[in-house]
Write a structure and sequence with these properties.
Layout: E1 21-25, H1 27-30, H2 38-49, H3 52-60, H4 65-77, H5 83-89, H6 94-105, H7 119-128, E2 139-143, H8 149-161, H9 167-175, E3 178-181, H10 201-210, H11 222-233, E4 236-240, H12 246-253, E5 262-265, H13 272-281, E6 287-288, H14 295-301
Parallel strand pairs: 1-2, 1-4, 2-3, 4-5, 5-6
Helix pairs in contact: 2-4, 2-6, 6-10, 8-9
Length: 307
C-alpha cells in the first residue's frame, strides 16, 4: 500500500491558529525529548522493580515487596505488549503500577532534553508567534501523556528567547492555549515543579493518584470530559505521535470520526494493517502521514508548522 497517497493530496492548510484546532499528542510526541514509547516503558518499569531504592521507597509508601515481585514476574513473563494493556487485564496491580509509572517518568522530566529548542516543539513555538498578535485561544492541546514537557518548554522558551519588553505579552498568549492531560499527569504544572526528585514521596503519591489508564472509568474523569469537549469544539484535529489504540479512539474520537471536519494524523512506523484500521475508523476522513516520516517531518510536509 502506498502510504504517501493521502499525504500528497494535502495543500497548504489554514495557519495553525487560523481556525479552532485541537492537537492530540500520543507517546511519540514526547519521544524526541527522552520519554519512552509503550514497549520501552515496559522495560523501564521492569528495571525499576529490581532497583533497591525503588523497593525501599515503595515499602515506605505502604506496598509489600511480595506484591512487587508478583508484579515484576507477571509483567516480565506475560505477553502484554504495553503497560496500559497489562494494568487493564491485571487489575490487582493497578495501584502499584501507577506508582512505578510515576517513579519511572519523573526522573525523565529533564530540562536539558528540551533546550535549546528542537524537533516539533521548536516548530510549534515558532508558529505560535507568542510575542505578537497571536490567536492562541484557537488552539487546544489534548495530551495522552503524563509528562509536562510541553508546558515546561513553552514557559521557559519564552524566558530564554523573548525580548524582555515582549515577555508579558508572550506569556499572556501562552496562557490562552488550553492544555489538558486526558489520562492525568505527573502533577499540575507549574505548581508541581518540573524535574522534581523521584525520592519526594508526596510528589510521587500525588502523581500516582493523578495517573489514569485506559481501563479506568474515564467517562467519570473531568480531564477526559474536558479533552472530549476540546476536540468537539475544534474545526481541525491534528494527531501527533499516537499509536491509534482502538480503545482510546473509541472513547475519545468516535463522536467526530466522520463528521467532515479536517483530521490529520502522523503515522510513523504504523503498519499497513493498522493504517487501514485507522482509515476505516474515520471513514476515510483522515489524512495520514507516511510510515517512513517522523512527526516533525510529516508536520513540515503538511505546512502546518513554521520551521
Amino acid at each position: 500500500m502506498d502510504d504517501s497517497r493521502v499525504t500528497s493530496q494535502i495543500e497548504k492548510p489554514p495557519h495553525l491558529l487560523g481556525i479552532p484546532t485541537a492537537l492530540i499528542l500520543g507517546a511519540g510526541a514526547s519521544a524526541p525529548y527522552g520519554f519512552p514509547l509503550g514497549p520501552e516503558l515496559k522495560n523501564r518499569l521492569l528495571e525499576q522493580t529490581a532497583n533497591g531504592q525503588t523497593q525501599t521507597l515503595l515499602q515506605e509508601l505502604g506496598f509489600d515487596l511480595k506484591l512487587l515481585r508478583l508484579f515484576s514476574d507477571a509483567l516480565r513473563y506475560g505477553t502484554h505488549p504495553t503497560v496500559d494493556v497489562f494494568l487493564e487485564k491485571k487489575t490487582s496491580f493497578r495501584d502499584i503500577g501507577s506508582f512505578l509509572i510515576a517513579l519511572t517518568l519523573i526522573p525523565l522530566e529533564s530540562p536539558q532534553a528540551l533546550f535549546p529548542q528542537k524537533d516539533w516543539y521548536g516548530d510549534l513555538f515558532n508558529t505560535l508567534n507568542l510575542e505578537g498578535l497571536s490567536n492562541t485561544d484557537n488552539l487546544s492541546i489534548v495530551t495522552l501523556n503524563y509528562d509536562r514537557s510541553l508546558e515546561h518548554f513553552l514557559f521557559n522558551n519564552i524566558e530564554y528567547n523573548c525580548p524582555d519588553i515582549l515577555m508579558e505579552q508572550a506569556h499572556k498568549n501562552r496562557e490562552k492555549i488550553h492544555i489538558v492531560h486526558a489520562h492525568g499527569s505527573l502533577g499540575n504544572y507549574p505548581d508541581v515543579g518540573y524535574g522534581i526528585s523521584s525520592s519526594n514521596k508526596d510528589a510521587i503519591r500525588s502523581a500516582a493518584d493523578s495517573i489514569k489508564i485506559i481501563s479506568d472509568h474515564l467517562a467519570d474523569s473531568d480531564d477526559f470530559a474536558d479533552a472530549k469537549d476540546s476536540i468537539k469544539r475544534a474545526e481541525r484535529i491534528v494527531i501527533i505521535g499516537f499509536g491509534y489504540n482502538q480503545v482510546t479512539l473509541d472513547a475519545l474520537l468516535a463522536d467526530v470520526a466522520s463528521d467532515g471536519r479536517a483530521i490529520y494524523g502522523t503515522a510513523y512506523k504504523l503498519d499497513n494493517k493498522d493504517r487501514e484500521r485507522v482509515e476505516d475508523f474515520f471513514n476515510g476522513n483522515i489524512s495520514l502521514g507516511s510510515q517512513n516520516q517522523t512527526a516533525m517531518e510529516t508536520l513540515r510536509k503538511w505546512n502546518l508548522f513554521s520551521q
